[in-house]
Specification:
Elements lengths: L2 E7 L3 E7 L6 E8 L3 H14 L2 E8 L9 H10 L6 E6 L3 H11 L9 H18 L1
Parallel strand pairs: 1-4, 4-5
Antiparallel strand pairs: 1-2, 2-3
Length: about 130
Amino acid sequence: MYKIMGLDIGTKRIGVALSDYLHILADGYSCIAREPENKALEEIQRIAKENNVKEIVVGIPYNMDGTLGSQAEDCKNFSSKLQNYDIIYEDERLTSDLAEENLRSRKIDFRKNKGLIDIESARIILEQYLSRK
């Protein structure tokens, strides 16, 4: 049995979420600084190893017209460095807006901790994938 990891890769931070072993639930896990990149990759791999992760779902920020922009290419480039995992790309359009809405509805103040939005976005990305799977 293994878990699935969800990543919301931004320019400053990376939100991390993990599934349960039944691949039904997604839960926010942590937020990692994007720079230095080698440290971010090491931290993702450490979390993956500790949680027996085999698949990583990466949110890809497609443009609203469905094309790939520079940020989407950056996410693909970063995730290609995660060796030994099945990488799945998930459309993440509007997940940050939904994450903010979810946090507001739970009365969580994220204005001073933007990492909470990244964690919630990663959870939403993973949840979307799990519900389709």
